[in-house]
Amino acid sequence: MSGRLINSLREERLERRLSQQALADLAGISRQSYAAIESGASVPSTGVALRLARALGLPVETLFRLPARRPRAVVADPVTLRRDRRLGRVRVVRVGRRLMAVPLGEQLGRFGEPADGMARPLSGGRVHIDLFDEAPPESALLVLGCDPAFALVSQELRRRTGLEATWLACSARSALEALARGDAHIAGVHGEPALAKAGLPFPVTVVRFSVWEQCLIVARGNPLGVGGIGDLARPELRFVNREKGSGSRALVEARLHTEGIAGDRVRGFRERAASGHLAVAEAIAAGLADAGVGIRAAALAWGLDTLPLEEESYDLVIPDHFFGLPAVGALLGLLRSPAVRRQVEALGGYDAEGMGRRR
Fold it and tell me: Which residues contact 61 (CB under 8 A, 6 or more apart)?
């Protein structure tokens, strides 16, 4: 059994307008120790728990409690982006009144991420999840989108606040469709047309994440001498496209149209579709393709060269009915941190000015 405790320290402290340092001083402990207790990362001794309760004028059992006994199994709605894949290992995230099963097998990069349990399909489209006895901390947010930088942000959110955010990579179209169905808290999109065409059935707030560089990605040293989009029609050049509904694919199609080049003339245009910017770069680094379109940060991660195409804004779309969630507030506060902006910009090809601000 886990020794984890659930506490209401943050709520009680904020209600009394106390800083972490002030409450730590009242309890006779360091601010670092207090922060670890408040986030749930540390379990207080009996004496510390009693002193914190006395400082807030509350019974200790009101301030601290054991987590509810974890059920053996739950039924949830699946977040499925690829119909040909089984769910298997999943994270369970509550979105509104619904439990969502997020498949960890959707991206190979999450191979080692802890799961809440194993899912199997039920009739009617829902899934049965056999929960593990010892599961990771509860995830407070489900974010869909194609920016790999959000993995870094979710790690910083966990480190600084103790809150868990689950990120699932998908195209802007898939993210917005899932948001419209009520399957997620936040969708990431790039380009105003994607949002304009979404037809979301509720009001939303759009928050700036970053501006990134979209590039034509080629092998290191550009051995085939690719000079631009027009070269994609060369018969010897193998192209790896993005999945339908992605902004990168739309960009390629628009540039080919401007060049007067039909997609059928590009080798691999319809046959190869990578899911995500990193997958494009990985295919080129592995020698499976000679060129693709993606963000510069993905190319740098695989040591590849780039030819700039354009800059795009990447934004987070948040339904107004989720905007008041404490986890959303914590995320926005984190995004406004200069240190987090520097971390994102260090990935390369990002301009994080205005990150976390409403557009």
Answer: none
